[in-house]
Amino acid sequence: MVQGQLPIADLRSRIGRPDCPAIIDVRRREAYERAADRLPAARWRDHREADRWADAFAAGSEIVVYCVHGHEVSESAAGRLRAAGLDARALDGGIEGWRAAGLPLVAKADLPGGDCAATRWVTRARPKIDRIACPWFIRRFVDPDARFHFVAPDWVGECATELDAIPFDIPDCRFSHDGENCSFDAFLAAYRVREPALEKLALIIRAADTGRLDLAPEASGLLTLSVGLSALTSDDLVMLERGLTLYDALYARCRDVPAESHGWPPKEIAR
């Protein structure tokens, strides 16, 4: 591996976590425009202008750039960013190496807001489960800079127009309940993100949000914690920030430690 490159496994372990580095797609524009997908939470930037867009990041920020195969395009971009004072590395193997490893990708055609703009989303006030899970998915897999607005139920449609925002978890919109599925399921389907851990998480959310607690043993815990968090604050944005941590933990459980258990007495005491 070339010095300054980041192994695919290292980035994979941080996708979906709050400490994930900024991920920048620097494929040549023609390659990017032909492509159907990109890495989770990635934004496209022109690698030839890295000196200019480096100014958008604070000194020392951690950045991962990737091109098609991890060759001269991403290497040159990473070099420019390091010269600008950023902690930048190129993804070893590029997006094709990531794809070959069977890791999750996000459908590019369904990403709102263009290549660079932060997206806005609006839904009903007083979120508890699905309306926290959906922003978590957006922040961790679609747009880390996404902004969320919680408004009175009767005004979601009108506020979507006024705010130039995308509505979710209301009737008759793209990202909403469909039969037995929740809005979280609609997001996974729309962005075509396929991963066992996310599918397991979706089942837990579905069970807790629709009251079918028999579908997943974790559902009653999610319901209890979500209702408790909601009772602690009347500020929906505070609820969102606290809830993001809850879903970070649930995703880590589903992906990284699905079989870990806990009991008494601990092994070191039992001995």
TrEMBL record:
Residues 23-107 form the Rhodanese domain. Pfam families: ChrB_C, Rhodanese. Transmembrane segments: none annotated. It comes from the Bacteria. This is Chromate resistance exported protein.
